[in-house]
Amino acid sequence: MAAVRWALLAAGAMAMAVRALDNGLAQTPPMGWLHWERFLCGTDCGTDPRRCVSERLFVEMADVMVAEGWRDVGYEFICIDDCWMAPTRDEQGRLQADPKRFPSGIRKLADYVHSKGLKLGIYSDVGNKTCAGFPGSYNHYDLDAQTFASWGVDLLKFDGCNSDTLELLAEGYRRMSLALNKTGRSIVYSCEWPFYLRPMKQPNYTEIKQYCNHWRNFFDVYDSWSSIKSILDWTALHQDSIVKIAGPGGWNDPDMLVIGNFGLSWDQAVTQMAMWAIMAAPLFMSNDLRHISPEAKWLLQNKEVIAINQDPLGKQGYQITKDKNFELWERPLSGQAYAVAVLNRQEIGGPRNFTFPLTFLGNGLACNPACSVWQVLPASRDCGVYSWVSSLSMEVNPTGTVLLKVVAL
Predict the structure, then answer these.
(1) Tens digit of pLDDT for each residue in 175-223?
(2) How far is CA 382 from CA 12, 23, 277, 404, in A?
(3) How many domains does the structure of the chain reveal?
(4) Does residue 24 form part of some domain?
(5) Domain limits for position 360
């Protein structure tokens, strides 16, 4: 049975430790805001200044992150993605920001972000050009790392477009990691390495974790339920190889949170937030925090969900069973606790009940001899105390998720 197989695998995963990148960073999954999914490569500031990738966008987002409580619940990075650069390097061969859209320069922007108690992330690419065609870091790894450090950058998202061979791709990711560490500045290193390897070669996650703080495995997230489903399906299909690698210092990255945009229903937004917490995912929102509904804000700032995501034990969750369009996932937490997600994948009809024995959880130990069950999402409530031999029944809306915290007594 899937539940038994996964209980055994989970026990093995908990005993395994993979050496992480030795920079002391990302001991829990990083949290912040990233411009890409919502703002893409908007460069026409004349026509559309509020949606243009410019210093104004990042200054305004930093202001909102402080004023509206995002920083206080843990979202600390403001991250620039592709399209920030000028079309060419400067006379010294250094990357430079587009002078019209970033007239003050990245150093001044970093200073402003830091003055707000936040951190600045930036983007580059392992190849000759970025995915959008701007200058890449190939043959400039040390120079670019030094440039980013001199600007006060705190995170680098390093993409994998336009690299000629898999050998050059791997060499570039390794070299940039070493170059960042050599600067002496603490810079979180976000990689796309396994995603670009996978079509042709099985990634060596032990090696990747030695060089990267988190890494993308799958396609870009879109503002749609089909995109969220595809990420969850891919993760469950490959959990045997990826779950055991994740932990303090190195995380699987299923990509951005799109909650607060246009494509997800309320129940689907709950599902993304719950499942990203179960997967110990980096929490990088891509939305417009200047215009976000109170409901989306409540969900994204939910301290109970964030506490699960940021649990110091640092174990990634996994799917333990599937049954009639329901999925049951669990994540080991500190303090002999588990986070449990009950996901209803049916897209027709109304709410349905899913009943499962508590012996399914934690290799049979999560509720031995008894446990308390607390519902975190879609609303917080006490579900009571259960014995080891009990079953639990949850009503779940179509495409929705009930997120629970189970604590052994």
Answers:
(1) 999 999 999 999 999 999 999 999 899 999 999 999 999 999 999 999 9
(2) 31, 40, 20, 10
(3) 2
(4) no
(5) 318-408
